[in-house]
């Protein structure tokens, strides 16, 4: 069987019929069953109308991104029955993600065209409340009967009004009521960690609401979304799918000349480059502002540029319109090395996987070299016209995540501070002197309302220093945190260079004589500073204090968690067994001496 990439390379895939044709040549179930566990996802599509081709378009687009979905398409307009019946095919399918595709005509009924112009405000508000109650009830049933996340379409605001140009003069027109319905729908689910609202009205506006419906197909087969926009609609789902599978990109790697400014600083000089409020300089200025907004939401920034270091730093330090500052970057490979070597060095410095990098370079030769040598890196094909740079970056959805914690917002700053630590360590030389000079403070806190979202997030996305790589939703963490049989801990690290935030998690199952480490994970940027030793020692002390004799651990190997492989061996554990899949079980006698590391101040909250 041909791969999806081979199939796509042989033809131009544009319309929905192309996606259907490619999908028919794929064995979806076999692909899913043979896929890596962390790239599998079960998706259920439930709709109030005909969505022909959506399943096939989503399948092909997912496979092209290295995601292996199994997709269930609910029966025509049977979404309520499938959701409300606990023994329905929907729940037998055991979805990871349910996409609920409702439309304005369905929920409005006769009112869509025939609006009551008298007493319309009360009727509209009653309709809004009734619709919200119905959707909330369906969402509650999905959460009750499955562990799936739910993605709900909001509603397209109609372009038509029977009132014509005086629609906006009414106290509560139908268009206004749909806008209010969307606002309240978003508000209801804003704090729900498992339910998300897709702004379908925004999507419809972007493609053009007149283009979004093919009326002939609508009347023939109840196609309320035109087949020609179905592939674009499936693109709206992929950011959520990537985030669920922890495939969100983490680091934006930037070239300098021709990307952050126009021209070549080594040839044009500081005053000759194009950057600022001029027709030629404004696109670069706007691009920097967009990059800065990504930095403030937690995207790590790095530089990979063929340049003289002093020339480049002069721009950062002296140019009046340089929005991005030197301190915003976690790694700066500004040299005459090849781009591939620099990219590997950046991943090593930042301590993230090479597949977490996104590369922006205006030179097509550089891009092709990186694509060929490092296909895991997402290399963006920048247009030849710099005026399109800002739009290109704004349309890039690979940094989207399901939530934004305080640690996320500060991540860019934390990684930039990490670069200072690395520079300080190189200068200090002696590891003991380095650790002492860092003045590290570790705060250990039990799971609570405030840190549970972050704890769950870390279990979902931490891959390298993670002994078991078990993924937990917020509901799972809450359940364990409220149980007497578990100890759920978070770890926060601070030092002289700044606050690294909540960067560690431990989940321990408590028995009478034996405690078992279910999960133990830390961000790689805090490793090597005795932080992991501190957390483990705290667990051992708590276990011994409550009468346990033994602490058990487990290492489950993955493609990425090699940094955690020797963790138990280094800390006095004895290996009990090795399973056929490479999983190892370890135990440690709690009667043996266990002391907190030197040079680390421990605060227990």
Structural descriptors:
605 residues, alpha/beta, Rossmann fold, Aminopeptidase, 8-stranded mixed β-sheet, 25 helices, 19% strand
Short description:
40% of the residues lie in helices and 19% in strands.
Question: What's the topology here?
Answer:
Elements: H1 4-9, H2 16-24, H3 28-33, E1 40-47, H4 54-64, E2 68-73, H5 79-84, H6 89-93, E3 97-101, H7 104-108, H8 120-145, E4 149-153, H9 174-188, E5 195-198, H10 200-207, H11 215-221, H12 230-244, E6 251-254, H13 265-268, H14 282-296, E7 300-306, H15 309-318, E8 329-335, H16 339-350, E9 357-361, H17 364-373, E10 378-381, H18 389-394, H19 406-409, H20 411-428, H21 431-438, E11 440-446, H22 452-461, H23 474-481, E12 486-495, E13 498-510, E14 514-522, H24 531-545, E15 550-555, H25 567-570, E16 574-578, E17 584-589, E18 600-604
Parallel strand pairs: 1-2, 1-3, 3-4, 4-5, 6-7, 6-9, 7-8, 9-10, 11-18, 14-15
Antiparallel strand pairs: 11-12, 12-13, 13-14, 15-17, 16-17
Helix pairs in contact: 2-4, 4-12, 8-9, 20-21, 22-23
